[in-house]
Amino acid sequence: MRNPDFSPLYRSAIGFDRLFNLLETGQSQSNGGYPPYNVELVDENQYRIAIAVAGFSEQELDITAHDNLLIVKGAHVGEPAARNYLYQGIAERNFERKFQLAEHIQIKGANLENGLLYIDLERIVPETMKPRRIEIK
């Protein structure tokens, strides 16, 4: 059973629709391995995604975030140059890569450096969600 059907659970589970959407989104992502990426834990609450985007300029890349979903797209502008390759090992195709973000993850910035797109993320937990010490009287 490769793609489970969660629809029967929708009838009796109230308030879990976001969880089911996460599961379905994870099942439907078939990006293959392009472009390759790394997810780095910088420190306890900071992360960095590095995506190999050789051949793409800043104008050809698009980063959007919506409902804890980070979408990175790359689309070449214009017609590809006619070349006669003896061997073509560098991919030049367009891509769309999706990352599901956890609660309280905020995107701090992005920069393109030496063919790598870096996206910096930070987990900012609200004070009401942090553990607090209870004084004993």
Topology of this structure?
Layout: H1 7-12, H2 17-28, E1 37-43, E2 46-52, E3 61-66, E4 69-74, E5 95-100, E6 105-113, E7 116-123
Detail the poorly predicted runs.
Answer: none
How do the SSEs run, as a string of H and E?
A: HHEEEEEEE
Shape: elongated
- How much of the polypeptide forms β-strand, as a percent range? 35-45%
Strand order of the main beta sheet, please? 1-2-7-6
- Average pLDDT works out at 84
* Record field, number of beta strands: 7
CATH class of the largest domain: Mainly Beta
Brief account:
It holds the Pfam family HSP20. The protein has 137 residues and is mainly beta. The chain has helices spanning 7-12, 17-28, and strands at 37-43, 46-52, 61-66, 69-74, 95-100, 105-113, 116-123.
Description of the structure:
The chain folds into two domains: 1-30, no CATH class; 31-129, Immunoglobulin-like (Sandwich). The strands form two sheets. It has a four-stranded antiparallel sheet with strand order 1-2-7-6, with no helix packed on it. The protein has helices spanning 7-12, 17-28, and strands spanning 37-43, 46-52, 61-66, 69-74, 95-100, 105-113, 116-123. A hairpin with a 2-residue loop joins β3 and β4. It has two helices and seven strands, in the order ααβββββββ. With 137 residues, it is mainly beta. The radius of gyration is 20 Å and the shape is elongated. Belongs to the small heat shock protein (HSP20) family. Residues 28-137 form the SHSP domain. Keywords: Chaperone, Cytoplasm, Stress response.
